Amino acid sequence: MSAAAPQEPAVVVAAGTVPRSEEVLTDEALTFVAALHRRFTPRRSELLARRRERRDEIARTARLDFLPETAAIRDGDWRVAPAPEALNDRRVEITGPTDRKMTINALNSGARVWLADFEDASAPTWENVVLGQLNLIDAYERRIDFTTPEGKSYALRPDEELATVVMRPRGWHLDERHLVVDGEPVPGAFVDFGLYFFHNAQRLLAKGKGPYFYLPKTESHLEARLWNDVFVFAQDYLGVPQGTIRATVLIETITAAFEMEEILYELRDHASGLNAGRWDYLFSIVKNFRDGGEKFVLPDRNAVTMTAPFMRAYTELLVRTCHKRGAHAIGGMAAFIPSRRDPEVNAQALEKVKADKDREAADGFDGSWVAHPDLVPVARASFDAVLGDRPNQKDRLREDVHVTAGQLLAIDSLDARPTYEGLRNAVQVGIRYIEAWLRGLGAVAIFNLMEDAATAEISRSQIWQWINAGVVLDNGEKATAELARRVAAEELAAIRAEIGDESFAAGSWQQAHDLLLQVALDERYVDFLTLPAYELLG
Q: Which of 147, 175, 474, 537 is deepest in the core (most CB within 10 A)?
């Protein structure tokens, strides 16, 4: 009698129970996620190793250029698949996490698209991961509502008035420790993508739409190729027609900026556009060129506007690349948020957002991002003025644009220098954001700006870079670890005075302070602050 074949190890959910989680974590859905993990995680690991090799090369040479080996793709005559009707007009997109209230508000916001975020605007507690999926299922089934403790009720408008959902899974670098297959944590990207696609692909097709995704933190066309292979496998697995999935890639790393055409090419049957992810882009520049000397030292975050020459080069190249290949070019986040209590703050926010969106529409973008429902009409007016009744301006090819590697890397073309106030702001934002993240909040209003993990990454990266480059600030003080510690201690004391001892003790303020200093001052620069932060997350 032959021995029985060994059973495959079960998928292990290593987490406490979340209400209604059995509706999301079905055996069939987990089997699909496990299939993604077993088939694709080895390649994901190879690509993460390749990131480290490339970063070592940049550290050695302080250079980056367009790839000679892919010149034929850049010179070739090809286009991405035509946009589906639901993604043809993207003039305003709202972003935000998938909690119940935000899900209703974003869908009702009047924006054409909602970026339903499991990445930078969401702290990946297991509750957020599972309930975020449940909220989207409930929204598609029209069984979602929400009532605040004060008694205010929220409910969905008719289907034809709702934003189209484009879901953003976590980046390749993040694991999900609460879901284990064969003794290994599953990459968060496969958990988020897998659960959403498995549960909603057929639901969306029945509504005349499809499973649409934003792909974050991509660093090369080989990473885009992996996503494309995941899409092909997933569509076959569920018997969904090839090309049903559509993906918009965030060009939010400096390395991806040199591979825009190749990224679109790899995803050409599934691509719907590129997005100018400005905050992570700045973080990526610091991360990759952090030891490249004074030439690569960024000034205060708020001094780096989209009119900076190297940022203009990046956004104009993105528009030209997208339109040359028949893809949508989507503009970046307006981080300013309106205030319903302070008319002056409100007026300034609306004015800055209008200027930002006017510039993007004039440059040829087909749409752009906002972080708050009150900003949807402002952004829509900017694009309406240029588009009129047309769904996009992909016919505007921007053949006048010719961008060189040197222009993309001309960080020193900006007439601004690091300041003491810039250091203090980086510390303030870093501590306040990390504290909220540790409590499970990924999108946080701080000093009238909507902050997410990307802005916290810039904050800690600039502190690291300024100290290691020996920058002398505008007040004559040298940026040192001692100065950062002093400013952080002052900020912690100011927060305690502001919120009171009881609220301070109830928060995670000391942990946030310690973690910011760890990732800003350690000799070894950790690639993402969310990696050590995740170890502290409940």
A: 175
The residue type found at 198 is F
pLDDT at residue 110, rounded to an integer: 98
Residue 68, classified by CB atoms within 10 Å of its CB into exposed (0-12), middle (13-18) or buried (19+), is: exposed
Measured torsion, CA atoms of residues 522, 525, 529, 530, in degrees rounded to the nearest 10: -120
The CA-based dihedral angle spanning residues 297, 302, 306, 309, taken in that order and rounded to the nearest 10 degrees: -30
Q: Collapse the DSSP code of 145 into the 3-class scheme (helix H, G, I; strand E, B; otherwise coil) and give the result.
A: strand
CA distances to 59, 81, 270, 361 from 84, rounded to whole Å, are 42, 9, 10, 22
Q: Are 43 and 226 in contact (CB under 8 A)?
A: yes
What three-state secondary structure class fits 387?
helix
Comparing CA positions, the residue from 170, 216, 220 lying closest to residue 54 is 220
SS3 sequence of 517-531: HHHHHCCCCCCCCHH
Q: Which residues of 90-129 are buried (b: 16+ CB within 10 A; e: fewer)?
A: bbbbbbbbbbbbbbbbbbbbebbbbbbbbbbbbbbbbbbb
Query: Which residues are designated catalytic?
Result: 168, 452
436 membership: H or E segment, kind and range: helix 420-438
CA distances from 136 to 140, 214, 537 (A): 6, 16, 23
pLDDT along the chain (538 residues), means of 10: 51 94 98 98 98 96 97 98 98 97 97 98 98 98 92 94 98 98 97 98 98 98 98 98 98 98 98 95 96 94 93 98 98 88 91 96 98 95 98 98 98 94 98 98 94 94 96 98 98 98 97 98 96 94
Nearest Cα neighbor of 277 from 415, 93, 44 is 93
Measured over the CA atoms of residue 231, residue 236, residue 237 and residue 238, the dihedral's sign is positive
What the block records as the tokens of 271 is 């691509």
Q: For 117, which DSSP code?
A: E
Q: Alpha-carbon distance 329 to 138, whole Å?
A: 30
Residues in the chain: 538
Q: 3-class SS at 208?
A: coil
